[in-house]
Amino acid sequence: MSESATVGRPRLSARFAAVVVLCFTLLTGLLTAPPAVAALPVNDPNNLQVLVTKSRPLNPLRYIAPDLVFYPGTNFVLRREVSANLQNLFAAARNAGAPLAVVSAYRSYDQQAALYNSYVAQYGQAVADTISARPGHSEHQTGLAVDVGNLDGSCGLGACFANTAGGRWVAANAHRYGFIIRYPNGYQSTTGYTFEPWHLRYVGRSVATEMRTRGIPTMEHYYNGSNQSIKSGTALVAADSAGTLWNYAPNWYGGFLGRTRIGSGWLGLKAGYSTDWNSDGSQDILAQWRDGRLTLYRGLRAGGFAPPIQIGSGWASMDLVVGTWWRGSRYPSVVAKDSTGGLWHYSNTTGGALSSLRSAKIGHGWQGLGIALADWDRDGNQDILATRANGQLVVYRSNGLARFISEGRPVVGTGWDFMDSLRAVSGFQGPGSYGLRARASNGQLRYYPLPGNAFGPRAIIGSGWQNYTILD
């Protein structure tokens, strides 16, 4: 089942599209940037993603969560959603042979004051501030934090917990249940607290999985003041028939969170590519226009895009893919197929304009073939997947040095003559996942897991995309 398409909006599968971004601010100009869900530090203490630190106290200071419940079989209190997900986490840990127990959970302002003062009396204020939060500055007061330990009591609240079966299991799996290790090892200068492998903070499965997938170590890093319009290469970016540009953020569990409008005036677009072109950590857009121009829109950390920079002309008859064709190169580059079937590699040596000369002709006889870049065999090299007119999908393996490996061209699929907008994405179905996203001629959006050398079972992740230009 999927929701109905309205005003040219593609239908996303109801299984995946659970959250719709309700509020956004539209700025004028060619490209605009809405505020993103949980992109900037969250102040509302009722919000599951509220940021509480030494310099960001709760407001009000004596805040009490509205839905506190006892964790079953204990006198510990947590917010209702946190308790439910912690029960699932504990059940999975127990089944894995790493049974856990709650050691500490919600603490009121007064309880935190008493605990903090006891540490000051015992160790002095300087040490106390590295192991305990001042009242009104504690995550425990939100009802979203819980200290866990091994059921047998071994290691207690000590760093050694990280090396126990329970600690290792939590570090590897907590995100699946919406939790993060809030104060990881090596980040005291960021969080202000020493390593606490036992301190779990609930942020919800989407944020926890996104942090895990993208390698974001702390909430301070996640809420770093950045409000980029496109936060990940896994996001889907598309222009509708009215020239409006939309961003569909992934939920990191095989679907999308909804869409936000990030631009207008995109009529005349032949193709587009979402990529970190200058390797500054922000997703940019490389736009190929029907008049042959190739323009770059650099993503800004505060949101939106810089004015377009023309980096090429005469591209009207070319079919492009963007990626790291030369393994280890600092910047992504372009592989292009010309009208005669020649395949070329264009270098991006500065993060700006392409090389004025074709770096290398890497193939010929590619007339009628569709092309996409993907690491088919997961060896770290970007290979080319080619769709033939007869529907075959063929792999041309790369050596990582802008050349093909001399071997057979295995056919890895059929029926691909009805497919376009092929793009390899990481993390779409969770940490470590990798696969190919593609659009069928009937408007279906499909995802094909690619664990290595073969596709997994496909998933239909949307419909109604016939009239959209999807940025690859």
Quickly describe the structure.
The chain is 14% helix and 28% strand.
How does this model look, in words?
The protein is of the alpha+beta class and 472 residues long. The protein contains 7 helices and 27 strands. It has helices spanning 80-95, 109-123, 125-131, 165-173, 188-191, 205-214, 219-222; strands at 11-12, 68-70, 77-79, 100-104, 145-150, 179-183, 196-202, 236-239, 245-250, 256-263, 269-275, 284-289, 294-297, 309-312, 319-323, 333-337, 343-346, 360-363, 370-374, 383-387, 393-396, 411-413, 419-426, 434-440, 445-449, 459-463, 469-470. A 5-stranded antiparallel beta sheet has the order 1-26-25-24-23, with no helix packed on it. A hairpin with an 8-residue loop joins β11 (269-275) and β12 (284-289). α2 packs across α3. The radius of gyration is 25 Å and the shape is elongated. Mean pLDDT is 87; it is low at 1-9 and 12-38.
Strand and helix layout:
Blueprint: E1 11-12, E2 68-70, E3 77-79, H1 80-95, E4 100-104, H2 109-123, H3 125-131, E5 145-150, H4 165-173, E6 179-183, H5 188-191, E7 196-202, H6 205-214, H7 219-222, E8 236-239, E9 245-250, E10 256-263, E11 269-275, E12 284-289, E13 294-297, E14 309-312, E15 319-323, E16 333-337, E17 343-346, E18 360-363, E19 370-374, E20 383-387, E21 393-396, E22 411-413, E23 419-426, E24 434-440, E25 445-449, E26 459-463, E27 469-470
Antiparallel strand pairs: 1-26, 2-3, 4-5, 5-7, 6-7, 8-9, 8-27, 9-10, 11-12, 12-13, 13-14, 15-16, 16-17, 17-18, 19-20, 20-21, 21-22, 23-24, 24-25, 25-26
Helix pairs in contact: 2-3
